[in-house]
Amino acid sequence: MEVAALIMASVAASRTTVVICDASAPDLPVVYVNPAFTELTGYTEAEAVGTNCRFLQGPATDPGTVRAIRDAVRAGEPVECRIVNYRADGTEFWNELRISPVHDATGSITHYMATQRDVTDEMTEREAERQAATHDPLTGLLNRTAFVEELDRELARAARNGTAVGVLFADVDHFKKVNDTRGHLVGDEFLRHVSRLLRRSLRTQDAVARLGGDEFVALLTDLPVELAQDSVDAVVEDLERSLAQPVPLDGTEYRTTVSIGAAVHTAGAATGRQLLDEADSAMYARKRRAAARADHRGR
C-alpha cells in the first residue's frame, strides 16, 4: 500500500474525529470527514462536505471562542480550544478541538485539519466541582467565599464606573422554632423557600448567597450614586413584605419575619468583608429595634 493510501486508510479507521477543510476555497468548506466524525456528531459525510464547520455551532457556543478560532485560522496558526457544539439531533456536547494548517511544498496553506474529542463528561465533572466549591448545597445559592469574591470584584468595577453597590444581610427571625417544632426537613424546605423568594425578587445581575444557618446576603450592583440609598431601602421594604407572607409547609402555614440590614458603598476605600460586616451590624440593630417594639407593646 502506498504511503498516501495508508495514511487515508489510517485516518478513516481512527477513533479520533478528523475533519479536513479547503483553505483555498471561500468559506473554508469541509472536504473530508472520517467515520468517527459521523459517530460523534450524527452528521453524515454527505451532509458535512461542502459546508463550513459553523453548522456545529448553536446557542450555547461561546462567541469569544469562535472569534479566537477565526483569528488563528486567518493568521495561519494552529489553535486548540474547548467549545460547545451540537449534534445533528440538537444535543450539546463539549468539543476539544485542535486545528492545524496543512502546507504544500512551497509553504502555502492548502488545507486545515481538525481533530475533535468529546469531553462532555470531563467538563460536567469540572462544573460540578466548581459548583460544590462556590455554592451552598442546600439552596444552590452562592456560599460565603464566592459571595465575598464577587463583592470585591463589584466594588472594583463600581470604582471604575462611578456607580454604587448595596449589600443586604437577612436573618430569618425565630427560625429555630420551625426546626424545633417541625424538624430539620421542614426547616430545610423553609430555607429553600426563602432562597427562591430572594432570587425571584432581585434582578438577574444581583448576587444572592446563603452564609449558613438562616443567614442570607444579597449584592445589588450598578446603582446610581445619588439614588443608591433610596434604591436599597425600597428593595428592603419589598423583600420584608414578600418574606412576611405565610409559607405552606407539610400541611401547615408558617408565618415569620426576616430582619434585613443594608449597607451602601458609594465611594472611598472598602473591602467586601468590611461592607458585609456593616450590613450585618445594621441587621442586628434592626432586629434589636423590632424586639424592643414588641416588648413595649407587650407591657
Output the keywords.
about 300 residues; alpha+beta; Beta-Lactamase; Alpha-Beta Plaits; 2 domains; 11 strands
Q: What is the rounded Rg?
A: 28 Å
Q: Given the C-alpha coordinates, what overall shape results? A: elongated
Q: Helix coverage percent of residues? A: 40-55%
**What number of structural domains do the residues give?**
2
Strand order of the largest sheet: 2-1-5-4-3
- Mean pLDDT equals 89
- What is the CATH topology descriptor of the largest domain? Alpha-Beta Plaits
Backbone structural class:
alpha+beta
Which stretches are poorly predicted, pLDDT < 50 over at least 5 residues? none
Tell me what the CATH architecture of the largest domain is. Answer: 2-Layer Sandwich
The CATH superfamily label of the largest domain reads: Reverse transcriptase/Diguanylate cyclase domain
Range of strand content? 25-35%
Count of DSSP helices?
10
| Name of the top-level CATH class of the largest domain | Alpha Beta
Main beta-sheet annotation: 5 strands, antiparallel
Give the SSE order as H and E letters. HEEHHHEEEHHEHHEEHEEEH
Give the beta-strand count.
11
Kindly report how far apart the N and C termini lie. 102 Å
What does this structure look like?
The protein is α+β, with helices and mostly antiparallel strands and 299 residues long. The chain contains ten helices and eleven strands. Strand 9 and strand 10 form a beta hairpin. The mean pLDDT is 89.
